[in-house]
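Per reviewer request, we include the raw input and output of the structure prediction for the construct analysed in the revised manuscript.
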Amino acid sequence: MPAQIDIKEVHWLLDIVQCIDVGVIVLDRQYRIEVWNSFMENHSGLGPDEVHGKVIFELFPEIDETWLRRKVDTVVQLGTRAFSLWEQRPYLMHFKNYQPITGQEDFMYQNVTLLPLAASHGVVEHLCAVVYDMTAAATHKKQLAARDAD
């Protein structure tokens, strides 16, 4: 019998998901958005009510649909995480760069982790995408490369 979940713990977990400084998106297998945390809201300008149930490719046409579907298929089939680094693909979604100190970049560079989310019966029915703002690291790496080229 599974352990009983304390409602207070669920509340804490939801608070953490909303407050961490990374984007958290949960998609169903039809790519409809189920969870959209405050990081995503702040950077996209779209609230959870505006995105819930919508297909992510319709809201963000800049996403390379073929690439993301291939990545997700691998995650689902293998049941393992997959990663995308900003050096390979600068971003998943084109967000403006809002960092006042490193404001040299026009957009937010992003690392993305894709996590399989299995239902209680073990089948992966959802996927979590975690979006990390890597703009500061990208800026520093580009500055070092430019300096080394001189």
